[in-house]
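Hi V.,

Quick status before I head out on leave. The structure for the redesign project is tokenized and pasted below; the design run finished overnight.
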């Protein structure tokens, strides 16, 4: 089980009242909410391995070089801890990120982030290396591109907390978007994604993109059709795709998650006991983690 950690603690922050505070009055709603999320996930799914994947760089330079607008709208409101604001992130979330990291480390839950890469890239690399089924827990639809029924890779997309998850497999993607996992990145590239600053191909929306991919197989097939006078593209589609060649040439590297992140050594197994009990006790007292931490400990070690 691979956690898109920032996606989950962001949801926890808005799902748990900020009246949940440490003894000194500091909000810890994201910390406690995330611990409850993880406890529920472990209880319901009992993964053999669990990795909290982190955004060491939420806007990697190599992506920005290819598409300067990539997440550009978030730059003005960047917060500490490598966390971008989505719309507007209140300043009580960023200080909770180091606490989350300290608690995960003391528990012994693997936490992996790599400089120059987003959590999505870590997840993509780990998924590619996996020898068994993989559950990816994320509120980011970009990771639908990793869904692979043959390898048992699916996305668990939170609908409400993590008590209600949408299990996303190839059949669900085909019904919803008309593509499977491998086609989702091409779909997103063609239609664009304002939340990530991806312009897409002007005039090519989601439905048109899905029809093009169905007709021509993949992005390469679509672009080959542009050069084939006998293809079934309409004149306007042909013109729009032709005018977007420069974007289409670089966008795949930006949109597709990396599969070759240089990962550090780590132990992904669920911890049989806390890695650092003394540090965990200190963190629990300082931040008032109470029942949330106890529930996770009971689930992990009960």
């Amino acid at each position: 089980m691979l956690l898109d950690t920032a996606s989950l603690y962001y949801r926890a922050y808005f799902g748990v009242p900020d009246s949940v505070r440490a003894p000194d009055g500091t909000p810890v709603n994201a910390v406690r909410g995330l611990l409850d999320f993880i406890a529920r996930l472990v209880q319901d799914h009992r993964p053999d391995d669990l990795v909290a994947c982190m955004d060491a760089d939420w806007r990697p330079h190599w992506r920005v070089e290819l598409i300067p607008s990539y997440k550009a709208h978030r730059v003005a409101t960047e917060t500490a801890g490598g966390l971008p604001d989505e719309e507007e992130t209140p300043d009580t979330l960023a200080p909770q990120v180091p606490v989350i990291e300290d608690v995960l480390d003391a528990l012994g839950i693997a936490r992996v982030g790599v400089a120059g890469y987003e959590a999505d890239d870590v997840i993509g690399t780990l998924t590619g290396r996996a020898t068994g089924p993989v559950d990816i827990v994320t509120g980011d639809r970009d990771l639908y591109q990793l869904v692979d029924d043959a390898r048992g890779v699916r996305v668990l997309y939170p609908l409400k907390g993590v008590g209600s998850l949408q299990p996303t497999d190839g059949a669900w993607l085909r019904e919803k978007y008309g593509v499977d996992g491998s086609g989702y990145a091409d779909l997103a590239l063609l239609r664009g994604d304002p939340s990530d600053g991806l312009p897409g191909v002007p005039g090519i929306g989601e439905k048109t993109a899905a029809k093009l991919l169905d007709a021509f197989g993949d992005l390469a097939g679509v672009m080959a059709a542009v050069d084939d006078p006998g293809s079934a593209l309409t004149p306007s589609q042909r013109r729009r795709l032709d005018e977007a060649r420069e974007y289409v040439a670089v966008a795949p590297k930006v949109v597709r998650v990396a599969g070759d992140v240089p990962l550090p050594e780590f132990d992904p197994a669920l911890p049989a006991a806390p890695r650092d009990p003394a540090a965990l006790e200190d963190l629990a007292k300082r931040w008032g983690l109470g029942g949330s931490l106890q529930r996770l400990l009971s689930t992990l070690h009960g």
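Above is the designed sequence. The first helix runs from residue 5 to 15.

G. will cover questions while I'm gone.

Best,
W.
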